[in-house]
Amino acid sequence: MNCRQLWMDMCRERLTQGLLLRLGILLTAVCVSIHVYLEAGWRGTPAPLAVGHPIRSCHNCGQQSRSKRVSAEPGAQGRSIKRRISYVRMLKKDSPAEKRDGDKEDPSLPCCPPLLSQKKAPRWHIHLEPWASENHSLEDEARRFLNYITTPQVSCVPLPGEETALEGNKGAWTVCLDPKYSLTHRVQSKHCRVYSFGLGVDDRSLEHSLARKGCEVHCFDPSLKQPHLQHAEMWLHRLSVDWRDPNPAIAAQRQYASTKKLATILNDFGHRQVDILKADMESAEWKILENLVLEGVLDSVGQLLLELHLHWAGFEVGGDDPSVVRYWFSLLKELEHADFRLFHVYSDPAKPHLFLHKNVLNASSAYTLSWVNTQWKP
Question: Cβ distance 374 to 341 under 8 Å?
Answer without folding.
Answer: yes
